[in-house]
Amino acid sequence: MGSQYTNNLSQLKNLGLPAITNLAELASQMRLSVGLVQTLVFKSNEHYRVYFLDKKSGGEREIAQPSRAMKAAQSWILRKILYRLNSSQNSKGFEIGESILSNAAPHIGAHILLNIDLEDFFHSVPASHVYSIFHSIGYNKLISQKLTSLCIFKGRLPQGAPTSPKLSNLACQRLDSRIQGYAGSKGIMYTRYADDITLSAFNESKIRKAKPMIEKIVLDEGFSINHKKTKLCGTRKRKEVTGLIVSANGVGIGREEYRKMRAEIYTMLQSDPSKLAHINGWLAYIKSVDTTNYARLIKYIRTLKKIFPDSEVFNLIPAIKKN
């Protein structure tokens, strides 16, 4: 037992993780009282406010918002433990240095694209998986149980907790490994952005033949598929990955979105200045994912500035404010 204890502490140290062996040490590291941490652990379900949001596809999405104290504990776990653990290379969502752009880019030039949506994603990760994550990195049973209790709500990952996105990625490591192992050997590219799985290839038959096995792996790993959102896009169809359009030689917002933005900018300047905040937000987003179309839109706005020289709105668009 002494040897195992030493090995666990050594493993935690090698990973750069806090060496915690009991509740008092955990509370001290979190800078919370032992009594408060005990309450958060043993009465965790009482520290959430639950509400529901309508889904675009119909139905409701449960949001469990942690209390201020619970969120403080979870934020510590995220910063000091979870962010120091590596997710799979296929995981592009909720990861430092990754984005919807890095999720879409590997699929540039593909002739066929398969999108699979994982249904009720966070809620599909049970407490047992979360416990396994903490225990596998070196925490003893007691601390693994405490950390798990601080991260789950009613036995599963809550949508609304800051720890859930990263934990969901860590819980998907075997899923990612199995899909990558199967798809990669067949020349199929695989990425996952949270609950959004994307596979692509140059050969349509490869994807069609692989689809049943990919779906079987997903089900084997305890996840469900939202078949209504499954999409298979061939050569002539528009290929969309996490909201971005993938073409033969690049990735961006696409012509349709670009034209829509031009029209909204013109409407704002001509008759509806209330759109300003919306447009500024979209310009910032487009700048981060599509520099070519961002430059085109800025050029268009500067052209409109000559048409509407007296408009004060231009002074409220950060992208051109200095010009």
Automatic annotation (TrEMBL):
The reaction(s) this protein catalyses: DNA(n) + a 2'-deoxyribonucleoside 5'-triphosphate = DNA(n+1) + diphosphate
EC id: 2.7.7.49
Keywords from the UniProt entry: Antiviral defense, Magnesium, Metal-binding, Nucleotidyltransferase, RNA-directed DNA polymerase, Transferase
Signal sequence, start to end: none
Principal EC category: transferase
SUPFAM superfamilies from the UniProt entry: DNA/RNA polymerases
Pfam families: RVT_1
Record-annotated membrane-spanning stretches: none
Descriptive protein name: RNA-directed DNA polymerase
Lineage: Bacteria, Pseudomonadati, Pseudomonadota, Gammaproteobacteria, Alteromonadales
